[in-house]
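My current task is to audit a protein record that another person submitted. My question to you is simply how this chain folds and whether the tokens agree. This is what I was given:
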Amino acid sequence: MKWQQIPLGTLQTNCYIVENSQRSCLIFDPGSEGKKLIHLLNQRKLTPCAIFLTHAHFDHIGAVNEVRDTYKIPVYIHKKEEKWLSDPALNGSQLFMFQDSIRVSPADHIIKNEGPMEINDFTFSVFHTPGHSPGSVSYYFEKERFVISGDALFQGSIGRTDLPGGNQSQLIKSIHDKLLALPEETYVLSGHGPVTAIGDEMDSNPFLNGF
């Protein structure tokens, strides 16, 4: 199984494609540029199985409808942000995008609990990691040694907490309890910027000093 990072849109939000040996794939956070993403998937002859969202901010959901409609696949999101998809005031597009407010059709599946998840041949765990937003989740692929953290943890930084529902102390707790508890060699696939590793962030992230 392997993954690919695809920065999309003005904010270069990282979309991730996780594929298996049968060339099936999962799509995480298709934030923008749906046609570009679809072209890439078709060019590589990948068959998408589902879309998983780390959270429902506008820069992570902008291409959801286009990609879902193209491949007829389900969308997963945490229950605390299911209403954000269709509400520009909640997903931030009303504030940041003005006339281009984003409204996404309801998700097909609502994530209500943490724990293992299996879809087709993909097996991973879901962690609720709130703080950047109330329904932020991270997806941990233990065997493959990587976690898709959304905007919770970045290389040398953490997610902003000044948007609706943000809470810095809650975010620090989420990172400490859920992410820093993973093996140090675990790769962190963040929502923006380069890939990092749990051990590197434990050693050098200034926001996590003291842990």
The domain at 2-208 is CATH 3.60.15.10 (Metallo-beta-lactamase; Chain A). The mean pLDDT is 95. Helices lie at 34-43, 58-61, 64-71, 88-91, 93-96, 168-179, 198-204. The longest strand covers residues 2-8.
